[in-house]
Design brief:
It is a single chain. With about 350 residues, the chain is of the alpha/beta class. It contains 14 helices and twelve strands. Helix content is about 45%, strand content about 10%. The strands form three sheets. The chain has a seven-stranded parallel sheet. It has a three-stranded antiparallel sheet with strand order 3-4-5, with no helix packed on it. Helix 9 runs parallel beside helix 10. The longest helix has 26 residues.
């Protein structure tokens, strides 16, 4: 099987020749791995570990004041599409919450970004450069839950879910309108070369969901349904990245039309592989379950191999599983030899 055929078999809940492999990693980890393995670039690393996926991104080409990296304030390291500057590792943390005290008119008058600022002109050529060998991920990342937190502040957002629901609804509508329009442009330009609409929203914490099922269904399920429908209308599988413990929300996620969830964390409550496979394995593609912290960072290669085999024995039967770490951003402190041990276990039919 080609990597693409292998992934699509998993999404059809059919056992492929081997379990598909997925690697999300920080630039710092990839650079370290390339140095240690004497590899010339990121693509060589993905080939070495047998990653079955590749991903294409639109590029920002709009006004400087909305740019993710240009004309930042002192101390800022990133800017979201909605003008919130952030500081810190990776995308960092928000430096302000511009709509924390806004009323409806101020929300509607806010300078929302133009989807046309995302350049999609090169996406199709970039995706086809892999000759349809790999499963191609595309679409906008669309972290609308995180953007609402940035715009309001987390505590304020939770209060407004009860006190001013119309404010939350208005913000989410504007944010998702933008993301849906960007993804429409991506699929119009390169849809025939993209297999999976991949987006991300972290609804789980380390001890449980960040909200109850009632709030989740009231405020967020309609937007997830919209994004899933958008992907399916363009004949894509739809997979969402979601960290933490969110098993109580998974039935509602299934109802939205999601085909898969990625970055499953077995060290959190109710997210152990056997329970996930038994409850949701026939309805969702399950992607993750190799503990990034206690196994991949703190363990030995032999521990990693042993745990990976245990997870594969649980998750492989019947298809619908993708092998990956429990965090989609392998950190630089993760030992390269442990990552190789995880992926090499799944390197042959039977995952022996």
């Amino acid at each position: 099987m080609t990597p693409r055929e292998r992934v699509l078999a998993a999404f059809a809940h059919v056992e492929p020749d081997r379990v598909p492999r997925w690697c999300g990693a920080s630039p710092e980890f990839i650079a370290k791995a390339c140095r240690q393995l004497n590899l010339p670039d990121q693509e060589s690393f993905f080939v070495r570990i047998g990653d079955d996926f590749r991903r294409v991104f639109a590029r920002y080409d709009g006004p400087e004041q909305f740019s993710p990296a240009a004309a930042l304030s002192p101390g800022a390291t990133y800017r979201t599409p909605f003008g919130v500057e952030r500081h810190g590792y990776g995308y960092g943390q928000p430096l302000s919450h511009p709509l924390a005290h806004a009323k409806l008119k101020e929300i509607h008058d806010y300078p929302w970004p133009d989807p046309a600022w995302q350049d999609v002109s090169r996406l199709r050529a970039e995706a086809l450069a892999w000759d349809r060998r790999y499963a191609i991920l595309g679409g906008d990342w669309s972290p609308f839950w995180h953007d609402a937190i940035d715009l309001l502040g987390m505590e304020t957002l939770f209060l407004k879910l009860y006190d001013e629901p119309e404010v939350v609804d208005a913000i989410l509508q504007h944010v998702v309108d933008y993301y849906a329009a960007v993804t429409e442009r991506i699929f119009a330009a390169a849809g025939d070369a993209i297999d999976i609409f991949f987006f991300g929203n972290d609804f789980g914490g380390q001890t449980g969901p960040l909200m109850g099922e009632g709030l989740f269904r009231r405020f967020f399920v309609p937007h997830l349904q919209r994004l899933c429908r958008l992907g399916h209308d363009h004949h894509k599988k739809v997979m969402m990245h979601c960290c933490g413990a969110f098993a109580p929300l998974m039935p509602a996620m299934i109802e939205t039309g999601l085909d898969g969830v990625q970055s499953l964390q077995p060290a959190t409550p109710d997210m152990q592989p056997a329970a996930l496979k038994a409850r949701f394995g026939r309805q969702l593609v399950l992607n993750g379950c190799i503990d990034s912290h206690h196994v991949l960072i703190e363990g030995t290669p032999e521990m990693v191999r042993r745990r990976t085999r245990e997870v594969l024995d649980i998750m492989r039967p019947g298809g619908g599983y993708i092998l990956s770490a429990s965090h989609d951003y392998l950190l630089e402190e993760t030992p390269v030899e442990n990552v190789l041990a995880m992926f090499d276990v799944a390197g042959s039919a039977g995952d022996a």
